[in-house]
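Entry:
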Amino acid sequence: MWKLTLTVPGPIQASIRVRVPMWASKAMPIHVTAKLWRRQPGTYVTLDRVWKSGDTVTFSLPMDFHLTRYVGMEPSFGQERFALE
């Protein structure tokens, strides 16, 4: 879980962009104080609001393991090879 807590001298209008990486395994939940967004892999969410000290942005990167067949340049002598991603 990632957490960003803002400290500002006073209320400020600003945009924070959070990118959901293409490799994320599913929609990423993003919480801003009490509001929730869900964004699909390979997209952004723009958090455009008046920020105050103590406001928080939290999110978790959804990750999974998967196997990818490796073909490569060197021969494998009839054996299949895989990469764990």
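The chain has a mean pLDDT of 90.
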